[in-house]
Design a protein that fits this description.
The chain is an alpha+beta fold and 252 residues long. The chain folds into 2 domains: 106 residues, Arc Repressor Mutant, subunit A (Orthogonal Bundle); 130 residues, ABC-type transport auxiliary lipoprotein component (Rossmann fold, 3-Layer(aba) Sandwich). Helix content is 36%, strand content 28%. Strands 9, 10, 11, 12, 13 and 14 form a 6-stranded mixed β-sheet that branches. Strands 4-3-2-1-8 form a 5-stranded antiparallel β-sheet, covered by helices on one side. Helix 1 crosses helix 3 and helix 4 crosses helix 7. The longest helix is centred in the C-terminal third of the chain and has 22 residues. The two termini are 21 Å apart.
Length: 252
């Protein structure tokens, strides 16, 4: 049940199902292990979680040192900062573990036929270093546009989580199941001089079938504007396709 809740604290909302943190409705980049750690702390807010229990849960039985937990906790604290009271959200309990001490409200998300999606880093088929920067920026813009157009029913995996699968040779189904999402968007960018060909495909994780695909032929020109325009077009097409499949409608 805890993994289906939204947790609200301070200016933040944590979507436990998608492991995504929002601050004032904007997605906050959070490393996967830090997201897992936050999920555990929020689900047990007010209680002390022992270090060994956190290591076993977050690292899934892998043998790692306490320094890994300390480093991940430091990352999480840096992301959260401190509330206006000046007191941190997470207490260190000497020689024992940690406790999420701030006030937390748990909320069951609205009953919509929702979906979750991960935008994998697009492949770059060009030796030009500038092309690699363009592709990473395009991936980030698509992630942002999908979230903005999701209207609460499309859960978008955080960019930094998806970046761990850059150049991965795993099957889409395996990646999607590891991320816990329903759909994966993948694509590529090819460059010839100032001409770009951007390909994007939306794949359903459960059967690895394509549900949408499109190619975009563009001249490079203003790279930032091109990223925004193409990302907006892709997000609009995906939203329309998912809506056509009945996703985003109220469940009976």
């Amino acid at each position: 049940m805890a993994d289906t809740l939204d947790y609200r604290f301070g200016p933040f909302v944590f979507d436990a199902r998608a492991r995504v943190l929002y601050r004032d409705l904007q997605v906050v980049d959070l490393a996967p292990k830090a997201a897992e750690l936050l999920a555990l702390l929020l689900a047990n807010a007010g209680a002390v979680l022992e270090k060994d229990a956190l290591l076993d849960a977050v690292w899934a039985g892998r043998i790692v040192g306490e320094s890994s937990l300390t480093r991940t906790m430091s990352i999480l604290r840096t992301v959260l900062g401190k509330p206006e009271s000046g007191v941190g959200y997470i207490d260190t309990i000497s020689k024992r573990g940690y406790r999420f001490s701030a006030e937390v409200t748990s909320v069951i998300p609205t009953s919509l036929n929702d979906a979750s999606i991960a935008v994998l880093p697009f492949n770059c088929y060009s030796a030009c270093e500038d092309s690699e920067y363009f592709v990473d920026g395009l991936t980030e813009e698509i992630t942002s546009e999908l979230y903005k157009r999701g209207d609460g029913w499309l859960r978008v995996m955080a960019r930094t989580t998806c970046m761990t699968f850059k150049n991965s040779l795993q099957r889409i189904g395996a990646i999607g199941r590891e991320l816990g999402v329903d759909y994966v968007l993948e694509g590529s960018v090819r460059r010839h001089g100032e001409q770009l060909r951007i390909a994007a495909q939306l794949i359903r994780v459960k059967d690895e079938m394509h549900v949408w695909a499109e190619n975009y032929e563009r001249r490079l020109g203003n790279a930032l504007r091109l990223q925004c325009v193409v990302a907006g077009e892709i997000a609009r097409e995906i939203r329309g396709k998912l809506s056509a499949l009945g996703i985003g409608t109220c469940q009976s």
